[in-house]
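pinging the channel bc i need a second pair of eyes. not urgent but kinda urgent?? the chain im working w is below, pasted from the shared doc
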Amino acid sequence: MRKKIIFMLLCGASLASFEFSWDLIRAKLAQPMPAWMERQIEEDLELFPGKEISNEAIEATIRDVRKIPSSSQVGFIRYRIQNNRISVSSPTEMLSDVRVAHVVEVLEDLAKHLPLPDIEFLSALWDAYDNPIYLVYTHCPVFTICKSKSNRFGVLFPEFRHFSYRQRLINDIRSTSQHSPWAQKMAKAHWRGMTSGWHYNLDNWDTRPRSRLVLFSKAHPDLLDAAFTSPYSLNYAVKQTMEHYGLFQPWTYPAAFVSYKYLISIDGNTFASNFWWQLLSNCAVLKNESPYVEWFYVGLTPNVHYLPYSLDLSDLKDKLLWLRTHDDEARQIAEAGRAFAEEYLTNEALVVYFYRLLRAYAAKCKAVLHEKSCN
């Protein structure tokens, strides 16, 4: 049976433009690449020394992984850049999905302002591309927003969904922080989030890491205010049980959380999606030790930019008490996290990293003399 490939040329079509400061982007690109950033890109691409990435390897990866029964979880997206024109195809996914459309828009905006290399690259639509059986049949790098630390095929790149919301949140956190000096913040930790973290059922819901965190809050309300905001993927019986124990609170806009001195970051299904803005908040962030990484984690130093804690929460009480009794150190952690986020986690900074990654990837591509060449 012939494979169905959905293909769309997007050189003319565009979503509503993101409002980037291209002067700032060019200024950042003119600066030397930070050592941590260079190291992350090199590590992500080190499995392919020399010019060894080819279209044949991309096609073989799509073909071989799609033969695996669970391959519907992959969501391969294939991007092509040629003469600063962007096209995208997928064997399975809707190209109107915002996780695809926003990457295309970033590429199109880049093409208007900077020369892009002629390349093709493969991306996984979902949070991570980590299944061991997929990696056995992977023959090329796969761009992904998150991966396990042991995954050598995944190439980390920023998540580009909802840039308008990101910018609004950045602006509001900056503004709210100016009116929330450290001395006036509550010496207490705060967390809100969904019931993600894989399957919750009547036998195990209270063993899920996020449930443990909310139950910890019930036991130590003087140290932590934690609650779920939405019953994500819960069946009725589990939802009813968790509501009975008072584990849910209404959703609150994140900028309000900067009135606390400490914020908790905890993994969901994979990475914690709130970590980036928590670093920006001028609050001391506690982040669980995790097998998952995003593109910027290597630039962070534990106990400098954030305070690590165990996912089983065995040390969380001690860490929170330490923050209370070491207020100057807690403030320094908050300030260091914010400085990092202001430099590397703004929308413009994400575009800079993506552009540098694409150029490094292009240098690895195999030169072949036909129209579908990778470079």
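so Residues 1-16, 368-373 have pLDDT under 50 and may be disordered. and Residues 327-344 form the longest helix (18 residues). — does that match what u expected or am i reading it wrong
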